[in-house]
Write a structure and sequence with these properties.
about 260 residues, alpha/beta, Arc Repressor Mutant, subunit A, Rossmann fold, 2 domains, seven-stranded parallel beta sheet, three-stranded antiparallel beta sheet, 8 helices, globular
Length: about 260
């Protein structure tokens, strides 16, 4: 990858997330620490970024600069995605709900697979932090379920709330378990199609004691996208019986507990 390509990727990530760590840069760019430091030095010299402890942040805009228009999320719209591999997603949702303990606090990231665990949470009296209005609507009939939401911008196609760039808008909330989906899973880690989602999910991962990944077996067919986290940060992965043996071996080699949900 040429320097110009790396710099473009760095700026794209920073424009939408506000901050990126050295570790995430190494994973996304597949470059050495020395190369990344040189890239960041050039970007800082041109006034695009500011290097800080642990990574880099976007440089403050000039006082007279016009705000950039709000981006749309890339990827498949929610209403289209929810019909894909529905039976497998429902089985994965049931298996995920079975990992919840009565009365505990959990985080559920927005997605069509994580949505499928909601009907099975009835009666557990959970506290649920979620950024998805679809998940809120699914949980509202459950009188014993306490729902918490972050602040931020609503992306209508996904019905998901994401914080403005560089802002941590999550409530003070301790949750032992994070349930999240992904656009793809591969040797480089867990990926999403939009860097806005990467920034939002990274905030959740950093707060969680356990990361529980919920993906149907089709998500192993592609390994492209922006990296949310490495496989070493995932504790449990729940998928369906269609998972390729090589993909299953990759998951187990990473030390991840693999749960095969049955239809």
């Amino acid at each position: 990858m040429h320097a110009a390509e790396r710099e473009s990727l760095i700026l794209e990530s920073l424009r939408l997330s506000g901050f990126i760590s050295y570790r995430d840069l190494e994973a996304q760019l597949d470059a050495s620490p020395a190369t990344i430091r040189r890239d960041l030095s050039r970007l800082e010299e041109h006034g695009h970024i500011v290097r800080v402890h642990g990574g880099a942040k976007i440089a403050a805009p000039a006082a007279n600069a016009a705000p950039e228009p709000q981006s749309r999320l890339t990827g498949t719209p929610f209403d289209q995605s929810i019909t894909q591999n529905l039976a497998q997603k429902q089985a994965i949702g049931r298996a995920a709900a079975a990992l919840c303990e009565p009365g505990e606090g959990i985080m559920i990231d927005g997605g069509t697979t994580t949505l499928q665990m909601c009907p099975c949470l009835e009666g557990l009296d959970l506290q649920v932090l979620t950024n998805s209005l679809h998940i809120v609507n699914a949980l509202l009939p459950q009188a014993g379920t306490r729902i918490l939401l972050p602040s931020g911008t609503l992306f209508r196609e996904q019905n998901i709330i994401l914080a403005p760039a560089g802002e941590d808008s999550m409530p003070r909330f301790h949750a032992p378990k994070l349930f999240m989906g992904a656009a793809a899973v591969g040797p480089r880690g867990v990926m999403q199609q939009d860097v806005i989602l990467v920034a939002a999910e990274r905030r959740l991962v950093d707060r969680a004691e356990q990361v529980i990944l919920m993906v149907d077996s089709s998500k192993f067919a592609s390994s492209s996208g922006a990296i949310v986290c490495g496989l070493d940060e995932v504790d449990t992965l729940i998928t369906d019986s269609g998972i390729d043996p090589q993909a299953a071996a990759m998951v187990r080699r990473a030390g991840i507990e693999l749960i095969i949900a049955q239809d």
